[in-house]
Each structure stands twice: as C-alpha cells, then as structure tokens.
Amino acid sequence: MQERHKNRLVYFKELSITSKNYFIPYIQNWFPIEPGIDVLEIGCGDGGNLLPFSKMGCNTIGVDIAASRIKDAQIFFKTAHAKGIFIAQDIFLLKELEQNFDIIICHDVLEHITDKELFLSNLDKYLKPQGIVFMSFPAWQMPFGGHQQICRSKVLSHLPFIHLLPTTIYRLLLKAFKEDNDCIKELLSIKQTRISIEGFECLVKKTNLHIQNRKLWLVNPHYKIKFGLSPRKLNRNIARIPFIRNFFTTSCFYILKEKEPDNL
User: Fold this and answer.
1) Containing structural domain, residue 244
2) pTM of the model
3) Closest listed residue to residue 73, CA positions, set 97, 103, 49, 104
4) DSSP β-ladder status, 251-258 and 127-137
5) What is the pLDDT of residues 59-115, one digit of tens each?
6) SS3 218
7) Are residues 39 and 112 in the same domain?
8) Which among 85, 164, 198, 227 counts the fewest CB atoms within 10 Å?
9) Rounded distance, CA 257 to CA 103, Å?
10) Statement to judge: residues 85 and 70 lie in one domain
C-alpha cells in the first residue's frame, strides 16, 4: 500500500491541492465558482476535493456511504478551519437535497458503482437549473485502472496492468502476495464494475445529461503531487481512437449538463 493510502491526512491534503490547481480551473470554464454557490461531492471520502471550494466561500456538502471517511472529513475540515457538511448516507436516499446544487463533483467514484446507468440517470435531480456535473474517473485499461495501488504489498501496489489479467489469475496473484480478503474483494469488485471511455459516453446518452466538454489526460493531474510528474493531455490523434485511448488515459475529465427539453 502506498504511504498516502495509510496516512489519510496526507491524502486529504494532496487531493485538496489537486482540486485547487486543476479541478477548479477546469470547472470554472463552465460555471463561475463564487462565494455562496452550492457544491455537492458524491463519494467525497475524506473531503479533500471540497476544501478549496470551501475556502473560496462555497457552501459545500460531502456525501459518502463510508462513515469512517465522513468522520475523517469532519475532523480534517475542523483542523483546516473550513466549513462543510458531511453526511454518511446513500445520496439517492437524501431527497431533501434534490435541486439544491450548482456543481456536483464525482471524482473517482463511477468505477466503483455497479449500476452506472441508474447512478447517472439520477444525478440531474440534484442540480439547480444550469448546474453542472464534474465527472472524473480512470479509464479501465490504463496502468492503474484497477486501483491496485491500495495493495499492502509494495510490489503489487506499484505494478501496472495486473488488473487486466483474467479474474482467476488476478485473484491467485493477490492471494500469493498475502493481500487480505477485504482488499481482494474490493479489487475484484472494481474489476467487475470497470468503465471505459466508450462505455461512459454511451451511458450518458441514455440519461437526461449530455457531455458539454471532455478532457483526457495522459498524465493525471494528481500525479503532480503524488510523483512530481507534470500533467499532460492525451495526444489528439490517440484521443480519437476508440478503445486504444483507454490504455493511455490516466484520468478523464467531463463536464455534464442537463439536456435542453427539445433534446430529451
């Protein structure tokens, strides 16, 4: 397991830096981030992505089904003297939050969800008119698309593409390196719920949302703080090649908006 996954405060700070330096500038091209706007993060984890929004005066709410992560988010925000509300719950059970948000953030969440079409189909319920969704996820076939960086084994946590092995061999490999049952279960779940660029864009077409903008990264912006690598967009020519581009896309940024009535 990489150090940042052991020390949650370090991970919280790293996410907040990436959010400030890359998520916010990208989002601002499509929605002005100003004091008083309402921002929701679904699958917020420890809340790092929301910290710079809170510092800018936004009203921030984070929702995650993991109570332990919500507890950490509350502690970290208090330590940072920031305001934010964090709720341990399934977002779609929180009907009182519907039509409340200017911006919804879904960062590295979609690849964990089994029924992606249902998830995407319900997002627009939580948007205000003209609100947007910022969606980001790793393309499945990219080197660490299986999230194997959470492995306790230093070898496996730094070994690319092993998630593309057949399930039986992948499971045997994880057991051979003595990964615990919870880790194996999570990694196999991600393998089952994987998402590609083509799969995502096809699913969006079935919902009330449409893709306003897309940005594919050869070098994930978060790698700047993790590994000291400068973010880099995917080459345009490769970005046009269906399926092949998944192997090179370490992060996909999307802006989604609700379809106009005549486009439904």
Assistant:
1) 3-141+194-263
2) 0.93
3) 49
4) antiparallel
5) 999 999 999 999 999 999 999 999 999 999 999 999 999 999 999 999 999 999 999
6) strand
7) yes
8) 227
9) 10
10) yes
